[in-house]
Specification:
2 domains; single chain; globular; Arc Repressor Mutant, subunit A; three-stranded antiparallel beta sheet; mainly alpha
């Protein structure tokens, strides 16, 4: 996350509203009221409109004439597209990270996985807690690839949208334990600096996550019907 001391009012609003969407405090298709946002955050309309415009560019909200902004709806097509992109780019990033990540960076990944294991020991049927940037296993591997183009696509332009769809699979019982096993396998390949294996394992991990996310999406869709 950005340093709050250096953030503009628009930055803070963008971050706060985005986090509410990622954490499902704001639901898909929920209308966003500018007066309510202004009252909640004690700000004027101008930075709210700029924050919402940025969010619209990233596909997080939609704007309809005469109706205003609302949270974007889930889409099975978007879900599949996101996971296809992740499989390709994060697979390559994982291979590059084997060559370019420092031992200190890999040690940080190991600490993150250990924390996740402790969480799942307390709640075996749970999923991972919400992850952001400096505690996000995937985010740190992409950063560790030191490829600026992959980093921009995954960690900047599409990161929050990817988080929303990633978090869908947490609704499936046991998904956390399975993801943890897959993370350990990827981590082992990274520690051994085996780029070819790391790429294969990351691709498999994301394919499995896509399958769980689709299953979760269908369950949610069935409930709505």
């Amino acid at each position: 996350m950005k340093n709050h001391n250096r953030m503009t009012a628009t930055d803070r609003l963008f971050q706060a509203i985005t986090e509410d969407i990622v954490e499902c405090k704001l639901k898909p298709e929920q209308k966003l009221s500018e007066p309510e946002i202004a009252k909640k955050f004690g700000t004027s309309r101008a930075p709210i409109r700029e924050a919402l415009r940025r969010m619209e560019e990233r596909g997080l909200v939609i704007h309809r004439p005469h109706q205003g902004y609302s949270v974007a709806a889930f889409s099975i097509e978007k879900l599949i597209e996101i996971f296809e992109v992740r499989e390709a780019l994060e697979g390559i990033a994982c291979r590059l990270a084997c060559e370019r990540m420092s031992n200190k960076d890999i040690a940080k990944l190991k600490d993150i996985v250990r924390v996740h294991k402790q969480e799942l020991n307390r709640n075996p049927n749970g999923g991972y807690s919400y992850q952001y940037q400096d505690i996000d296993f995937h985010f740190l591997i992409v950063k560790g690839s030191k490829n600026s183009m992959i980093n921009k696509l995954i960690c900047e332009d599409n990161y929050n949208m990817m988080l929303i769809y990633r978090n869908l699979h947490k609704e499936i019982a046991g998904s956390g334990k399975q993801a943890l096993k897959e993370h350990f396998r990827v981590l082992d390949a990274l520690e051994n600096r085996d780029g070819e294996l790391a790429e294969i394992l990351m691709r498999r991990h994301i394919i499995a996550a896509k399958s769980r996310a689709i299953q979760s999406y269908k369950r949610l869709h069935d409930k709505e019907e």
